[in-house]
Amino acid sequence: MTGTPRTVMWFRRDLRVDDHAALASAAARGEVVPLWVADPALLNAPHHRSPMRLRFLRACLEALDAQLRDLGIGLVVREGDPAVVVPAVASDAGADLVVVTDDVTPYARRRDAAVRDALATQGVAFDPVGGPWRVPLGDLEGSSGNGYLVFTPFFKAWDQVPVAGRIAPPELLTGPALPSDGLGCLPAGDPPIAAGPAAARARLEEFIRSGRADGYGEGRDDLAADATSHLSADLRMGVLSPAQVGRAIGAVGGVPKARQPFWRQLAWRDFYTHHMARHPVVAGTALKEHFRHIEWDDAPDLLAAWREGRTGFPLVDAGMRQMAVTGWMHNRARMVCASVLVKDLLIDWRRGEAVFMRGLVDGDPSNNNGGWQWTAGTGTDAAPYFRVFNPFLQAKRFDPTGAYVRRWVPELAQVPDRYIHEPWTMPEAEQQAAGCRIGVDYPEPIVDHATRRVEAIERYKAAGGRYEEAA
Ligand SMILES: Cc1cc2nc3c(=O)[nH]c(=O)nc-3n(C[C@H](O)[C@H](O)[C@H](O)COP(=O)(O)OP(=O)(O)OC[C@H]3O[C@@H](n4cnc5c(N)ncnc54)[C@H](O)[C@@H]3O)c2cc1C
Question: Is the shortest distance between the CB of 175 and ligand 1 below 6 Å?
Fold first, then answer.
């Protein structure tokens, strides 16, 4: 070991050098070995494996490596179980400390405990500095001391916490050059969207410059306008920190009024991240205990039709196809697709959660789980179970001209506006004229919404759902 302290900076979902508390603390101490571990338990998990997200991840890691090299030292990549690999790198480097940005999933917690124990046997310390959130877990304990189960009081407390100042990237990094396995374990090829800090910063600036940040309150639910920020994958990988977003929209000293709806939406990310940290059980089952016993159908044909965008519910098919092509889906479409799987097809929300994890570039365990449990009515501050989305009314309200449906379901491109969301009601002659014969070119709805809605409510009631839960 040299006289200068050496720290291993283990990157996970914090793939940037700017505004990075853990990296700054490592650099301030002395020499640094930047490490990323290709963990087979994460990369190969069938529940989570997403080729598009992995391509995006690879491009983010390449960008991180380039940034680190500019500062003086490249990224060391090692494949294997982190409980073996991280101590081995610490030992090769002669480091006495490993720093990380904290993570909250049950798997991350188990992994980090195993790494911490293994390092301790070598006399190496393990220190989480900062986390994936804007506001640290310990700053939002709530009156119960165990956080918040309802979003609005969470947001009020969250909003009171000032936006932290920027943590500048280190000016220079020095440390030993260790051999690296490289990124060959990740699929190569163009990422689904431009990746890395410069691309994320450009997306953020364009969101503000175009006026979409100011118009977010009105535009966010317009499916065809696609007026949201598209920052979810950047935030997922930590290429961008939520504090960077806050500072860019002018949140220091008070968010401008027009941007408050966007700021509030961003807080859902912290809400679900805190929630999973405090209630890890949600990663595998319903938060509400009685809803762990809902009777679900095992209906592989219905699940496949939903996954492939062949349900005959135009908005659902559009959303699922948007995700298949781009790796992203509009939030309103996510809610409707999830609702139809659970309340119309009567399929366990966890099956849908897995399909989304595999399909979304922004697939994030806590946000995805939170979104699914919200829609299924089984989670924290969830939609009441008996309030079932009507997918056709949702479509008429948020895609009034059918532009979103036409973009993603080309079979329906020529269908007149008045039939676009219920194409099976089109008379025969209109079907011929639109080049879309129902049952031939585009399916009839695979289930009857009205009947299934009643059945879903019955099943929730049988599992112990109570109307008072809406309160
Ligand atoms: C069933 C379901 C599954 C979802 N799965 C994911 C997921 O895997 N990963 C993910 O990042 N988001 C998920 N969401 C939340 C939301 O749909 C996406 O964050 C959003 O559509 C991403 O687009 P955007 O970046 O343009 O968001 P914007 O509307 O511009 O919002 C800005 C940022 O705030 C955060 N955010 C916004 N809405 C939510 C929300 N409801 N919950 C948590 N964070 C939010 C995201 O980080 C987002 O990038 C899910 C929602 C539902 C209903």
Answer: no
Partners of residue 316 on adjacent β-strands: none
Same domain, 81 and 225: no
Ligand 1 center from residue 361 Cα (angstroms): 11
CA dist 212 and 219 (Å) reads 8
Q: Let me know whether 374 and 271 are in one domain.
A: no
Regarding the beta carbon of 13 and ligand 1, being less than 6 Å apart is answered no
SS3 content of the chain, % helix, strand, coil (to 5): 50, 5, 45
How far apart are the CA of 383 and the centre of ligand 1, in A? 16
Instruction: Check whether residue 126 and residue 140 sit in a common domain.
Output: no
Are 120 and 141 part of one and the same domain? no
Query: For ligand 1, atom 23, which residue shows the shortest CA distance?
Result: 230
Q: Establish if 284 belongs to a structural domain.
A: no
Q: Where in the sequence is the domain holding 433, given as residue range(s)?
A: 289-462
Report the number of distinct structural domains present in the chain.
Answer: 3
Q: 360 to each of 40, 50, 222, 327, how far by Cα in Å?
A: 20, 7, 20, 5
- Whole-number Å distance, alpha carbon 153 to ligand 1 midpoint, is 20
Spatial neighbors of 369 by CB under 8 A, at least 6 apart, are: 272, 276, 282, 283, 353, 379
pLDDT tens for the chain, 471 residues: list them: 458 999 999 999 999 999 999 999 999 999 999 999 999 999 988 878 899 999 999 999 999 999 999 999 999 999 999 999 999 999 999 999 999 999 999 999 999 999 999 999 999 999 999 999 999 999 999 988 889 999 999 999 999 999 999 999 999 999 999 999 999 999 999 999 999 999 999 999 999 999 999 999 999 999 999 999 999 999 999 999 999 999 999 999 899 999 999 999 999 999 999 999 999 999 999 999 999 999 999 999 999 999 999 999 999 999 999 999 999 999 999 999 999 999 999 999 999 999 999 999 999 999 999 999 999 999 988 778 888 999 999 999 999 999 999 999 999 999 999 999 999 999 999 999 999 999 999 999 999 999 999 999 999 999 988 765 554
Same domain, 238 and 366: no
Question: 255-270 burial string, b = 16+ CB within 10 Å, else e?
Answer: beeebbbbbbbbbbbb
At 99, which helix (H) or strand (E)?
A: strand 97-100
